[in-house]
Amino acid sequence: MNTTVEPPQVSLTNSTFAEIAAVLRAHESFVVLSHVRPDGDALGSQIAMGLALQQLGKKVKVWNEEGLLEKFSFLPGGELVTLPPNEPEDFDVVVALDTATRQRLGDNVLAAVGEAKVWINIDHHPSNPRYGDLVHIDSIAPATGQILFEFLQSQDLPLDEAIAENLFAAISTDTGSFQYPNTTDRTFEIAADILRCGIKVGELSQRLYESYPRRRIELLRVLLDHMRFDADGKVASFSLPLAMANELGVIPEDNEGLIDHLRAIQGVIIAIFFEELEDGKVRVSMRSKDERADVCEICKSFKGGGHKLAAGARMTGSLDDAVRRVIAAAVEAVNPL
Ligand SMILES: [Mn+2]
After folding, report:
1. Are residues 188 and 231 in the same domain?
2. Residues 139, 151: contact at Cβ < 8 Å?
3. Quick check: 8 and 138 in contact, CB under 8 A?
4. Same domain, 205 and 246
5. Can you give the pLDDT at residue 124?
């Protein structure tokens, strides 16, 4: 037994897996949603849920504001993921996965969801305000994919190799390949169960981690060239101006995870990546290696959120302004450490 793990902060108002399963079985039409700028946990969870509902004989749509990212297009069932339509559609049930706020489902997605009888919200972000009718937030789970595995398994819902592969992608990517501190004994047990479903971990990991387009590394080269350190090297950051992204021909999914190169530096406590977006906003991603430097708190002060060790925000104003304000907050957070 691991006695250092805190008891789950699953509040009493969480819907049980049995209650959620009953709602899934009792309805016919579903739309499965997740957050903008989807990561492996978002898309893997969406596809796994979509496949499970399909195997139950349900009518299922799986929408994402960005559709299926090129780098996750190998996931079995990936073709389920589409862009939202222009006209709103009605559903019995909306299932929102891995999405800390309703707004993060995306403007086009939200506009495309018409009437719905029930909203289900399954997530692991502690900052989730518990939107929806049936809510299950487990902030101890390192990935929404882990919650979904326990949900599907415990409720005798479909869980075949294709679903398992998507859940492995979700858990593996959100735990940094089982490295981050939220990775528990339970995570490894679930990973073992997933492997027993028949997935080939070597092949899958190669597609997840050793199949990057070359332009991603060309981007990394430029970013490292402009790397900046503050607070005696405890804060490391780099920025991607829109003009640079256009010049390099990179697409948004290329920069996912590049921040890990900053986090991996000895002495760095907070890593920050600033990305200038087309809409004039600045996307800020933050990582911390020390819970006392809570980047979720910092991001909340800029109307963002996330986890203590991984959080983000979207800021209005210029890139220079965002860099100045966020770095100042990060320096303040690491100075006492
Ligand atoms: Mn997640």
Report:
1. no
2. no
3. yes
4. no
5. 95
For ligand 1, the distance from its centroid to the CA atom of residue 232, given in whole angstroms, is: 31
Residues 122 and 143 in one domain: yes
How far from the centroid of its chain's Cα atoms is residue 43's Cα? 8
Q: Ion ligand 1 — residues with CB under 5 Å? A: 41, 98, 144, 174
H helices of 106-177, in order, are 107-112, 144-154, 161-174
For the stretch 155-182, pLDDT in tens is 999 999 999 999 999 999 999 999 988 8
CA 192/CA 107 separation, integer angstroms: 38
* 64 in the same domain as 156: yes
| Rounded distance from Cα 145 to ligand 1 centre (Å) | 8
Look up the domain containing 325 and give its range. 214-334
The whole-number pLDDT of residue 12 equals: 58
| Ligand 1 center–CA 219 separation, angstroms | 25
Query: Do residue 155 and residue 31 come from a single domain?
Result: yes
Residue 163, domain CATH: 3.90.1640.10
CA of 16 to the centre of ligand 1 (A): 20
Cα 233 to middle of ligand 1, angstroms: 28
